[in-house]
Protein backbone atom coordinates (compact mmCIF):
# COMPACT_ATOMS: atom_id res chain seq x y z
CA UNK A 1 0.00 0.00 0.00
CA UNK A 2 1.34 3.39 -0.96
CA UNK A 3 0.69 6.28 1.42
CA UNK A 4 2.42 9.67 1.30
CA UNK A 5 5.63 9.40 3.35
CA UNK A 6 5.18 12.78 5.03
CA UNK A 7 1.66 11.87 6.09
CA UNK A 8 2.90 8.58 7.55
CA UNK A 9 5.68 10.38 9.44
CA UNK A 10 3.20 12.86 10.87
CA UNK A 11 0.83 10.08 11.97
CA UNK A 12 3.63 8.20 13.72
CA UNK A 13 4.82 11.38 15.45
CA UNK A 14 1.37 12.25 16.78
CA UNK A 15 0.86 8.91 18.50
CA UNK A 16 4.48 8.54 19.62
CA UNK A 17 4.35 11.96 21.29
CA UNK A 18 1.07 11.15 23.00
CA UNK A 19 2.44 7.86 24.28
CA UNK A 20 5.53 9.54 25.70
CA UNK A 21 3.59 12.40 27.27
CA UNK A 22 0.29 10.87 28.36
CA UNK A 23 0.73 7.09 28.23
CA UNK A 24 -1.23 4.47 26.29
CA UNK A 25 -4.78 5.71 26.90
CA UNK A 26 -6.28 8.19 24.45
CA UNK A 27 -7.85 11.14 26.22
CA UNK A 28 -9.58 14.37 25.14
CA UNK A 29 -6.27 16.03 24.35
CA UNK A 30 -5.41 13.41 21.71
CA UNK A 31 -8.87 13.57 20.12
CA UNK A 32 -8.58 17.37 19.98
CA UNK A 33 -5.21 17.10 18.26
CA UNK A 34 -6.52 14.55 15.77
CA UNK A 35 -9.43 16.85 14.90
CA UNK A 36 -7.09 19.80 14.47
CA UNK A 37 -4.90 17.77 12.09
CA UNK A 38 -7.84 16.40 10.11
CA UNK A 39 -7.18 12.83 11.28
CA UNK A 40 -10.24 12.21 13.45
CA UNK A 41 -12.45 11.84 10.36
CA UNK A 42 -9.78 11.01 7.85
CA UNK A 43 -12.11 9.20 5.42
CA UNK A 44 -15.13 11.44 5.84
CA UNK A 45 -16.23 13.46 2.84
CA UNK A 46 -15.08 17.05 2.73
CA UNK A 47 -18.70 18.17 2.41
CA UNK A 48 -19.45 16.66 5.82
CA UNK A 49 -16.32 18.02 7.48
CA UNK A 50 -14.01 15.06 6.82
CA UNK A 51 -10.62 14.99 5.13
CA UNK A 52 -11.65 13.03 2.05
CA UNK A 53 -8.91 10.38 2.35
CA UNK A 54 -9.36 6.65 1.79
CA UNK A 55 -8.97 3.34 3.53
CA UNK A 56 -5.28 3.04 2.67
CA UNK A 57 -4.53 6.20 4.62
CA UNK A 58 -6.85 5.06 7.40
CA UNK A 59 -5.03 1.71 7.55
CA UNK A 60 -1.72 3.53 8.01
CA UNK A 61 -3.25 5.73 10.73
CA UNK A 62 -4.59 2.65 12.51
CA UNK A 63 -1.18 0.98 12.31
CA UNK A 64 0.54 4.12 13.65
CA UNK A 65 -1.60 4.00 16.81
CA UNK A 66 -0.81 0.30 17.28
CA UNK A 67 2.92 0.81 16.77
CA UNK A 68 2.96 3.53 19.44
CA UNK A 69 0.92 1.37 21.80
CA UNK A 70 -1.90 3.93 22.01
CA UNK A 71 -5.38 2.51 22.66
CA UNK A 72 -8.03 4.51 20.83
CA UNK A 73 -11.38 3.79 19.17
CA UNK A 74 -10.48 5.83 16.11
CA UNK A 75 -11.29 3.16 13.47
CA UNK A 76 -14.70 2.53 15.02
CA UNK A 77 -15.37 6.26 14.99
CA UNK A 78 -14.24 7.15 11.47
CA UNK A 79 -14.49 3.96 9.43
CA UNK A 80 -17.68 2.56 10.97
CA UNK A 81 -19.88 5.00 12.88
CA UNK A 82 -19.33 8.17 10.84
CA UNK A 83 -19.39 6.16 7.60
CA UNK A 84 -22.82 4.82 8.51
CA UNK A 85 -24.14 8.30 9.25
CA UNK A 86 -22.86 9.60 5.92
CA UNK A 87 -24.38 6.57 4.16
CA UNK A 88 -27.86 7.56 5.34
CA UNK A 89 -27.32 11.30 4.91
CA UNK A 90 -27.33 12.05 8.64
CA UNK A 91 -25.34 14.98 10.06
CA UNK A 92 -21.94 14.31 11.63
CA UNK A 93 -20.48 16.54 14.32
CA UNK A 94 -17.25 16.34 16.34
CA UNK A 95 -18.58 13.91 18.96
CA UNK A 96 -16.72 10.62 19.26
CA UNK A 97 -18.77 7.62 18.21
CA UNK A 98 -18.89 3.87 17.97
CA UNK A 99 -21.38 1.35 16.55
CA UNK A 100 -23.63 -1.18 18.29
CA UNK A 101 -25.63 -3.78 16.35
CA UNK A 102 -28.49 -4.67 18.67
CA UNK A 103 -30.39 -7.93 18.71
CA UNK A 104 -34.18 -8.11 18.71
CA UNK A 105 -34.27 -7.44 22.43
CA UNK A 106 -32.32 -4.21 21.98
CA UNK A 107 -29.06 -5.49 23.43
CA UNK A 108 -25.51 -5.75 22.10
CA UNK A 109 -22.50 -7.25 23.87
CA UNK A 110 -18.79 -6.49 23.61
CA UNK A 111 -19.39 -3.14 21.92
CA UNK A 112 -16.02 -1.46 21.36
CA UNK A 113 -15.48 1.85 23.17
CA UNK A 114 -19.15 2.47 24.03
CA UNK A 115 -18.37 3.67 27.58
CA UNK A 116 -15.68 6.02 26.23
CA UNK A 117 -17.73 7.51 23.37
CA UNK A 118 -20.01 10.54 23.30
CA UNK A 119 -22.58 8.89 21.04
CA UNK A 120 -23.41 5.42 19.72
CA UNK A 121 -24.77 4.67 16.27
CA UNK A 122 -27.37 1.98 16.92
CA UNK A 123 -28.54 -0.59 14.39
CA UNK A 124 -31.34 -3.07 15.03
CA UNK A 125 -33.35 -5.52 12.90
CA UNK A 126 -36.68 -4.27 11.61
CA UNK A 127 -38.93 -6.20 9.22
CA UNK A 128 -36.12 -7.84 7.25
CA UNK A 129 -33.98 -4.72 7.17
CA UNK A 130 -32.43 -2.53 9.86
CA UNK A 131 -33.07 0.80 11.51
CA UNK A 132 -30.33 3.25 12.45
CA UNK A 133 -30.26 5.94 15.10
CA UNK A 134 -27.44 8.11 16.44
CA UNK A 135 -27.95 8.59 20.18
CA UNK A 136 -26.01 10.03 23.15
CA UNK A 137 -24.46 7.43 25.44
CA UNK A 138 -26.31 9.06 28.34
CA UNK A 139 -29.60 7.68 26.97
CA UNK A 140 -28.35 4.09 26.90
CA UNK A 141 -27.85 1.42 29.54
CA UNK A 142 -24.15 0.67 29.30
CA UNK A 143 -22.52 -2.05 31.38
CA UNK A 144 -18.74 -1.58 31.25
CA UNK A 145 -16.51 -4.42 30.14
CA UNK A 146 -13.03 -4.81 28.69
CA UNK A 147 -10.90 -7.12 26.60
CA UNK A 148 -7.60 -8.53 27.84
CA UNK A 149 -5.68 -5.31 27.10
CA UNK A 150 -8.16 -3.08 28.88
CA UNK A 151 -10.00 -1.62 25.90
CA UNK A 152 -13.72 -1.02 26.57
CA UNK A 153 -15.93 -3.83 25.31
CA UNK A 154 -19.27 -2.94 26.84
CA UNK A 155 -22.82 -4.23 26.91
CA UNK A 156 -25.33 -1.76 25.45
CA UNK A 157 -29.10 -1.83 25.86
CA UNK A 158 -31.66 0.54 24.32
CA UNK A 159 -35.42 0.92 24.14
CA UNK A 160 -35.63 0.60 20.36
CA UNK A 161 -39.39 0.97 20.41
CA UNK A 162 -38.95 4.58 21.47
CA UNK A 163 -36.52 5.35 18.61
CA UNK A 164 -37.68 6.43 15.17
CA UNK A 165 -34.54 5.56 13.29
CA UNK A 166 -33.66 5.59 9.61
CA UNK A 167 -34.10 2.59 7.33
CA UNK A 168 -30.86 0.77 6.44
CA UNK A 169 -30.63 -2.21 4.10
CA UNK A 170 -29.22 -5.55 5.20
CA UNK A 171 -26.54 -5.11 2.51
CA UNK A 172 -25.15 -2.06 4.32
CA UNK A 173 -24.99 -4.02 7.57
CA UNK A 174 -23.19 -6.85 5.76
CA UNK A 175 -20.56 -4.36 4.56
CA UNK A 176 -20.31 -2.99 8.11
CA UNK A 177 -19.44 -6.48 9.38
CA UNK A 178 -16.75 -6.91 6.70
CA UNK A 179 -15.26 -3.51 7.47
CA UNK A 180 -15.20 -4.31 11.18
CA UNK A 181 -13.43 -7.61 10.52
CA UNK A 182 -10.84 -5.98 8.27
CA UNK A 183 -10.08 -3.29 10.86
CA UNK A 184 -9.10 -5.95 13.37
CA UNK A 185 -6.92 -7.70 10.78
CA UNK A 186 -5.09 -4.43 10.15
CA UNK A 187 -4.53 -3.92 13.85
CA UNK A 188 -3.23 -7.44 14.41
CA UNK A 189 -0.85 -7.09 11.47
CA UNK A 190 0.60 -3.89 12.94
CA UNK A 191 1.06 -5.63 16.28
CA UNK A 192 2.79 -8.61 14.64
CA UNK A 193 5.09 -6.39 12.58
CA UNK A 194 6.10 -4.47 15.69
CA UNK A 195 6.68 -7.71 17.56
CA UNK A 196 9.02 -8.79 14.75
CA UNK A 197 10.97 -5.54 15.01
CA UNK A 198 11.36 -5.98 18.75
CA UNK A 199 12.48 -9.59 18.36
CA UNK A 200 15.11 -8.72 15.74
CA UNK A 201 16.43 -5.84 17.83
CA UNK A 202 16.59 -8.00 20.97
CA UNK A 203 18.27 -10.95 19.25
CA UNK A 204 20.83 -8.65 17.67
CA UNK A 205 21.74 -6.70 20.81
CA UNK A 206 21.41 -9.28 23.59
CA UNK A 207 24.43 -11.50 24.23
CA UNK A 208 24.54 -14.96 25.76
CA UNK A 209 27.63 -17.08 26.29
CA UNK A 210 29.74 -14.37 24.72
CA UNK A 211 27.85 -13.86 21.45
CA UNK A 212 24.60 -12.25 20.24
CA UNK A 213 21.43 -14.32 20.47
CA UNK A 214 21.07 -13.89 16.71
CA UNK A 215 24.09 -16.17 16.23
CA UNK A 216 22.28 -19.15 17.74
CA UNK A 217 20.55 -21.30 15.14
CA UNK A 218 17.49 -21.96 17.29
CA UNK A 219 16.93 -18.21 17.70
CA UNK A 220 17.43 -17.66 13.96
CA UNK A 221 14.73 -20.23 13.21
CA UNK A 222 12.28 -18.66 15.66
CA UNK A 223 12.82 -15.15 14.31
CA UNK A 224 12.50 -16.45 10.74
CA UNK A 225 9.17 -18.05 11.62
CA UNK A 226 7.98 -14.78 13.17
CA UNK A 227 8.92 -12.93 9.97
CA UNK A 228 7.24 -15.51 7.73
CA UNK A 229 3.98 -15.56 9.70
CA UNK A 230 3.82 -11.77 10.02
CA UNK A 231 4.44 -11.42 6.28
CA UNK A 232 1.72 -13.92 5.41
CA UNK A 233 -0.75 -12.11 7.66
CA UNK A 234 0.13 -8.72 6.19
CA UNK A 235 0.05 -9.96 2.58
CA UNK A 236 -3.40 -11.52 2.83
CA UNK A 237 -4.75 -8.49 4.70
CA UNK A 238 -3.38 -6.07 2.11
CA UNK A 239 -4.88 -8.22 -0.65
CA UNK A 240 -8.28 -8.02 1.04
CA UNK A 241 -7.93 -4.27 1.53
CA UNK A 242 -6.94 -3.76 -2.11
CA UNK A 243 -9.96 -5.76 -3.29
CA UNK A 244 -12.24 -3.73 -1.02
CA UNK A 245 -10.88 -0.34 -2.06
CA UNK A 246 -10.66 -1.09 -5.79
CA UNK A 247 -14.24 -2.39 -5.91
CA UNK A 248 -15.74 0.07 -3.40
CA UNK A 249 -16.58 -2.95 -1.22
CA UNK A 250 -18.52 -4.75 -3.96
CA UNK A 251 -16.03 -7.39 -5.19
CA UNK A 252 -17.83 -10.74 -5.54
CA UNK A 253 -15.08 -12.58 -3.64
CA UNK A 254 -14.52 -9.87 -1.01
CA UNK A 255 -15.96 -11.86 1.89
CA UNK A 256 -13.72 -14.78 0.92
CA UNK A 257 -10.63 -12.56 0.82
CA UNK A 258 -11.39 -11.04 4.18
CA UNK A 259 -12.06 -14.52 5.60
CA UNK A 260 -8.66 -15.68 4.28
CA UNK A 261 -7.00 -12.64 5.83
CA UNK A 262 -8.66 -13.17 9.20
CA UNK A 263 -7.80 -16.88 9.15
CA UNK A 264 -4.14 -16.22 8.33
CA UNK A 265 -3.93 -13.38 10.83
CA UNK A 266 -5.42 -15.52 13.57
CA UNK A 267 -3.06 -18.43 13.09
CA UNK A 268 -0.06 -16.14 12.59
CA UNK A 269 -0.74 -14.51 15.95
CA UNK A 270 -0.30 -17.86 17.72
CA UNK A 271 3.07 -18.56 16.10
CA UNK A 272 4.39 -15.01 16.45
CA UNK A 273 3.42 -14.65 20.11
CA UNK A 274 4.86 -18.05 21.03
CA UNK A 275 8.17 -17.52 19.26
CA UNK A 276 8.60 -13.91 20.36
CA UNK A 277 8.28 -14.79 24.03
CA UNK A 278 10.74 -17.66 23.57
CA UNK A 279 13.24 -15.27 21.96
CA UNK A 280 12.90 -12.80 24.82
CA UNK A 281 12.78 -15.37 27.59
CA UNK A 282 11.90 -14.15 31.07
CA UNK A 283 12.36 -10.47 30.26
CA UNK A 284 9.51 -10.65 27.76
CA UNK A 285 7.02 -11.68 30.45
CA UNK A 286 7.60 -8.62 32.63
CA UNK A 287 5.17 -5.71 32.81
CA UNK A 288 8.04 -3.27 32.32
CA UNK A 289 8.94 -4.61 28.87
CA UNK A 290 6.64 -3.48 26.05
CA UNK A 291 6.54 -6.83 24.25
CA UNK A 292 3.28 -7.80 25.96
CA UNK A 293 1.59 -4.64 24.66
CA UNK A 294 1.77 -6.12 21.16
CA UNK A 295 1.50 -9.84 21.79
CA UNK A 296 -1.53 -9.56 24.08
CA UNK A 297 -3.12 -7.05 21.72
CA UNK A 298 -2.73 -9.45 18.79
CA UNK A 299 -4.37 -12.24 20.78
CA UNK A 300 -7.20 -9.96 21.93
CA UNK A 301 -7.99 -8.50 18.52
CA UNK A 302 -7.81 -11.72 16.51
CA UNK A 303 -10.98 -13.05 18.16
CA UNK A 304 -13.09 -9.91 17.79
CA UNK A 305 -15.74 -9.62 15.04
CA UNK A 306 -15.48 -13.36 14.52
CA UNK A 307 -13.32 -16.09 16.04
CA UNK A 308 -10.41 -17.67 14.19
CA UNK A 309 -12.41 -20.88 13.93
CA UNK A 310 -15.40 -19.09 12.41
CA UNK A 311 -13.21 -17.49 9.73
CA UNK A 312 -11.54 -20.84 9.01
CA UNK A 313 -15.01 -22.28 8.48
CA UNK A 314 -15.95 -19.47 6.08
CA UNK A 315 -12.86 -20.14 3.98
CA UNK A 316 -13.66 -23.84 3.91
CA UNK A 317 -17.33 -23.32 3.04
CA UNK A 318 -16.52 -20.86 0.25
CA UNK A 319 -13.96 -23.23 -1.27
CA UNK A 320 -16.36 -26.16 -1.14
CA UNK A 321 -19.18 -24.12 -2.66
CA UNK A 322 -16.92 -22.97 -5.49
CA UNK A 323 -15.90 -26.54 -6.31
CA UNK A 324 -13.02 -27.63 -8.48
CA UNK A 325 -14.21 -25.58 -11.45
CA UNK A 326 -14.74 -22.31 -9.55
CA UNK A 327 -11.98 -22.35 -6.95
CA UNK A 328 -9.38 -20.54 -9.07
CA UNK A 329 -11.85 -17.81 -9.96
CA UNK A 330 -12.76 -17.47 -6.28
CA UNK A 331 -9.10 -17.01 -5.34
CA UNK A 332 -8.12 -14.65 -8.14
CA UNK A 333 -11.38 -12.71 -8.30
TrEMBL record:
GO function term, MF aspect, one: flavin adenine dinucleotide binding
Necessary cofactors: FAD
Superkingdom, natural source: Bacteria
SUPFAM superfamilies xrefs: Acyl-CoA dehydrogenase C-terminal domain-like (SSF47203), Acyl-CoA dehydrogenase NM domain-like (SSF56645)
Domain Acyl-CoA dehydrogenase/oxidase C-terminal, first and last residues per copy: 185-301
Species of origin: Mycolicibacterium phlei DSM 43239 = CCUG 21000
All residue ranges annotated as the Acyl-CoA dehydrogenase/oxidase N-terminal domain in the record: 14-89
Coiled-coil ranges from the UniProt annotation: none
This protein's name: Acyl-CoA dehydrogenase
Keywords: FAD, Flavoprotein, Oxidoreductase
InterPro entries: AcylCo_DH-like_C, AcylCo_DH/oxidase_C, AcylCoA_DH/ox_N, AcylCoA_DH/ox_N_sf, AcylCoA_DH/oxidase_NM_dom_sf
Pfam families xref list: Acyl-CoA_dh_1, Acyl-CoA_dh_N
Family that this chain belongs to: Belongs to the acyl-CoA dehydrogenase family.
